[in-house]
Each structure stands twice: as C-alpha cells, then as structure tokens.
Amino acid sequence: MNLKNIFAHYIRIAEQGDVDAQYNLGTCYYNGDGIEQNLEEAVKWFTKAAMQGHVQAKFQLGNCYYNGDGIEQNLEEAINWYEQGTITAQNELGISYYNGEGVEQDLDKAVKCFKKVAELGNANAQYNLGVCYYSGEGVKQNLNKAVKWFKKAADQGHLNAQSELGACYYNGEGVEQNFEKAVEWFKKVAEQGDVDTQCILGIWYYKGEGIEQNLTEAFNWWEKAAIQGNVNAQNHLGVCYYKGEGVEQNLEEATKWFKKAADQGDVNAQKNLGACYYSGKGVQINLEEAVKLNKKAAEQGDSYAQNNLGICYYNGEGVNKDLEEAVRWWKKAAEQGDSYAQNYLGNCYYKGEGVEKDLDKAFEWWKKSALQGNIMAQKNLGTFYHK
C-alpha cells in the first residue's frame, strides 16, 4: 500500500472518529506523507485526537503550539498540552520551566519534571537532570550525581551527554580523572560528526594531552572537522600542511586552508596567511595582501600580527613607510609581552624613530625582551652597558 492509499485509509476512518487514525492523519499532514504538507490540517487532526485523550497527539499538539506550526504560537497552551502528554512531554515541560518559556521560570519544578522522566529511562531528561546537578540549578550542586545521569544518557547514545561525560573524565569532575575514558567518550561524539569535538581530539593528539602524541591522528581529526567548515580545524590543518606534521608538507595546501579560515575571520589563520604572503611560501609574495591580513589580525589583538604589521610600516613594505604607525603597533604587541616587538620598540626609543628619543625607555624595553631570551635585545643591552 503506497502513501497515498494509506492517507486515504486514514482519512476515511479518522472522519468516523477513530482516534489513532486521527493522530496518524495529523502526522501525514505534518510531514507531507501521501499528501501535500499542511500544518493547519495537522493541528486540526492532532486536536481531535488529543481531545479524545491520545497522549502522543497531546505531545505533538504541544509542539505545534510551542513552535507556532500551523497555529499561532502560544507557549501557555503548549504547556497545557505537555502537562497532559507523554513522558517525552514531561521533559519538554521541564525545559519550559527551566527556560521560563510560556510559564514563570521555576528551576525546582524543572528538576522535578526531569527527575520523574529520567528515572523512567528518558535519555534527554537524564541529560537535562545531569546539567542541573552539574550547575546547581534547581538542586544542590552535586558533580557525582551529574556524572551518574550523564552516564545513563550517554549509554543510550545521547550526544551532548557523551560530550559532557568526556569533559568530566578529562577534568576529573565528579569522577576520578581518566584521560583514556575522556578520549573514549569524545571519540564516540566525534565519530557522529560533531565538529567541535573532532577539533578538540585533534588538539589532544597534537599536544599529547592525556594520550600519546600522534600527529597523524591529529591531522585526521582536524581534516574531518575542517571539511565540515570548522575554522579552528581549518587553521590547524593549514599548520600541519605548512610544517609537514602528520602529513607530507604541502605549502599550497597550507595556504588553501589558511584562506578558508581567514575568510571566516579566524585571527590565527589571518596572521598565518599574512606571513605566507609576506614570505612567498605556498603563494606568490604579495606585501599589500600581507599587510591587509596582518592588520585584520592585529586589530583583533593578536600580538604576532601586530609585530609583523609594525615591521611592514617600519620598512614601507606593502604600505607607505610610517615610523609612528610602526611604533604604535609595536607598542601594542610589546605590552602583550612579544619579545620581538619589545626589542624593536627599544630600538625606536634609542634612535628616536617614530617617537621622541628616550634612552631610559629603550633600556626598559630591551630589558623586558632580553629577559625572555631575545638575543638581539641582549646584544643591544650589552652595547648599551659598554657605552
């Protein structure tokens, strides 16, 4: 029997008052199964079934009122139907109390709803109850209980619960710290396509945090996330290609991934791509583009880009020479602790370039840089002392 025939069957007996057929007919109209989607008709049939006590219809009708599907949004009416509906509806009711949507916010009532349904095995409610215990909302904070409920939901495949459980194991919250279990749970989430978790796994494998360092694994996880558009992963992938870590070095591929992330505003990718345009690695030298990208990153507070921008202004590379602008950007970077900028700033104060000559300030910035191990600053200090 095809969908059109099924629909015709439902409508015939639904009009005779059969409650299950009324609910099924509403579902057909809602999903567009066997008939063109019509949310107003879906609401009509869900209402008929709900009025006869069909619990699933009550839940679906609550959803329609909650989302404004086929009827004007009415959160109070949604709450009304949720209260009468299924176990799932009780979880939705808890969410409404938690967020204060359609009802006055009441975290105690939210917890009661979540707990009632969680104890019956509902994974969403178990996760929500875990969140409440973790944050101490509507209940006294108890990290052990948070882990308990996250675990119950995670064992049922709940994505967010698996992620939270992994984080608890990683940080040792509510459970003894266990990096292997953290990785185990994060892998479950990552394998379901969660890009943020894929990116985090890449970082752990790259740095060897809690697990044996594996650059190939780091690359593989970053590649999965990068392909899905995660900007952090795209930049990390670019670094792998640039350095030949976990993959054969390929500067063209590096700049490709830096550009994808830079175009989305990622500050690290902007400075990395700017450095490529400045040095001509993986792309033709383009000093104007290098300045443009370094400026974008510098304006977001990146000290590395601020230092590079200072160099461009000082040398007149890709921009008109402007010693005062060079000093301005070097000062921003120097105040964030960049040793190269501190040394350059010391040079400017020593020579009076772009700023009034001040030997005390020159000494001060050289000393800051030298203490960080900057060889040029150490030489400048040595020369200063001899004079």
Model description:
With 387 residues, the chain is an all-alpha fold. It folds into 3 domains: 1-85, Tetratricopeptide repeat domain (Serine Threonine Protein Phosphatase 5, Tetratricopeptide repeat), CATH 1.25.40.10; 193-295, Serine Threonine Protein Phosphatase 5, Tetratricopeptide repeat; 301-386, Serine Threonine Protein Phosphatase 5, Tetratricopeptide repeat, CATH 1.25.40.10. 72% of the residues lie in helices and 0% in strands. The protein is built from 22 helices and no strands. It has helices spanning 3-14, 19-31, 39-51, 55-67, 75-84, 87-99, 107-118, 123-135, 143-155, 159-171, 179-190, 195-207, 215-227, 231-243, 251-262, 267-279, 287-299, 303-315, 323-335, 339-351, 359-371, 375-386. The protein is elongated, with a radius of gyration of 30 Å.
Number of structural units classed as domains: 3
CATH architectural grouping of the largest domain = Alpha Horseshoe
Total E-strand runs: 0
Number of helices: 22
